[in-house]
Known about the structure:
mainly alpha; two-stranded antiparallel sheet; 8 helices; 4 strands; about 10% strand; flat
Amino acid sequence: MDDNNLGASSMKMNNNATTELQKESEMKSPNPHQPKHPFVEENGRNNIKEQQGPTMEWLLEPGRFKMKPEVREVTLKKITSWFMDNLLLIITFSGVSMGVIGGLLLRTVDLSPDSIMLLSYPGELFMRLLKLMILPLIIASLITGSASLNAKINGIVALRTIVYFITTSLISALIGLILVLIIHPGNSETKNLLGDGTTKEQKLDIMDNFLDLGRNLLPDNIFKASFQTSHTSYIGVNGTEVQRKVAYR
Length: 249
């Protein structure tokens, strides 16, 4: 029994020693499947010696910073989604920037009055379109707000709103009439002193007719456009200068 126990214990010791030797050899031998860290330098015994920064050769290695296809696809989708979500803001900012830069550049150029009028014509049509939307927008907002109110519960609020709107409109019209009677704009005596300003250059050309056509397609007042049209006229100043004026007639 003693001999058997001694034999078994010696076999266990041999197995343990063999296992320790295998582990030590595995730790010393490099693993070919394990990637090397680019920031780590190894010595001859394949043990980690010291940690250093990236070398220039490693940074300049071809394909080192190449983006994966799936990462590139996700990045492009994010950029495209951001542009689509902020498309109106981008277009508005681009238009304002181009307008400011173009205006600063054109200030140094000596342009004729006709060139200035043609450059400002798209902006004039845009402003007329905005003015055209003001009155229908106010009326539609009042109608929508009044219709959404409960007549039984909020009837007093709706009535006060309508009365307030009518009262403020009448007061503004009354103030305008009082100022006209006090200031007398377009006084006939002043007109007689300045003269009629008739000159031979007061003739409309084809360009004015085409511009008036665009102004009539986009009137600034929908009610006034129902019975009047925009018309370009030339007014003489002191019989020497001619000014272009656009008015309804």
